[in-house]
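input
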Amino acid sequence: MNTFQETPSQADAFLRLGYPYVALTALWLYDYVLCIPDAIECIVESRWGLPMFFYLACSHLPFVYVLLNMLALFRPDAPYSVCRSYEIANSYLGVLPMLFAECIFVLRAFAVWERVRWFAIFLFVNIVAYLVPIVIRLYC
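output
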């Protein structure tokens, strides 16, 4: 995100890079707006608990993630400290929905297996086995 001193062809390539992000954001926002009535109905009629928190986090945190990415993309001349804060926020906002989606999967699998204790232990060990390396890779 440093200030660029490039040729016109490099500047054009940089601008074209933003078009897929804008198109993807517009498509995602369109889908999000279309699903608002169903989401409100689900939120109002459902019982509130940990699964509802996971659902809300998985459905709304990516919106903030995409907005931060768009902000970082269209501010190439931002100072290093601002770019660094974008990257830190994006890394947290990228990992949290993945973690919450995995928690939803675990809760559903646990319910399908009729709350068998050995299956819960197996799921917990598997989650730790692949999330620990991801977290170590992201933050070290």
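quick obs: Residues 80-112 form the longest helix (33 residues).
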